[in-house]
């Protein structure tokens, strides 16, 4: 059921942190799921679901194969958008900004925390490329499994994290008769404070 409207926070990061904590404490299956919209070099938009793996005042982090369709799109055009939708809470959060690669140490630390099977899969999958058969994928996995037998799996050079640095964050709370509450925070320059305003539903 939708939550009661809440008094807005002055700071968008504190607001997201509070809502995200409530989402994680709820019974929803995957509160970290977020839609990621990108645009390629030809201006073609593309949308998919990724998982939030880190969040702080610098931005929202997810990980991917940089040679995938989304990776190539973000390296060509960093501007992108995210949407979190938590229907059980009657809430969504929209984020607009630009993506930038996380540091090598940060990417290495996250990769090391992943299950070994996921680490091996990052080597085996040529994400978004054409695959002739499932057998080819299984053969690639067998090859990297043998290659790293008895030793740690290192992070592939083409696999890393992207941090979406926000310039706009909108908080949406469902209301009766579709009279929703919407609050928007906009940053006009990289180091400028966010400006807050209320929007019509």
UniProtKB/TrEMBL annotation:
Pfam families: PNP_phzG_C, PNPOx_N. Its cofactor is FMN. The keyword Zinc does not apply. Residues 28-146 form the Pyridoxamine 5'-phosphate oxidase N-terminal domain. Residues 159-201 form the Pyridoxine 5'-phosphate oxidase dimerisation C-terminal domain. GO terms for biological process: pyridoxine biosynthetic process. PROSITE patterns: PYRIDOX_OXIDASE (PS01064). GO terms for molecular function: FMN binding; pyridoxamine phosphate oxidase activity. FMN binds at residues 48-53, 63-64, 69-70, 92, 127-128, 172, 182. Its EC number is 1.4.3.5. The keyword Flavoprotein applies. Keywords: Flavoprotein, FMN, Oxidoreductase. Gene3D superfamilies: Electron Transport, Fmn-binding Protein, Chain A. Binds 1 FMN per subunit. Belongs to the pyridoxamine 5'-phosphate oxidase family. NCBIfam families: pdxH (TIGR00558), PRK05679.1 (NF004231). This is Pyridoxamine 5'-phosphate oxidase. The gene is pdxH.
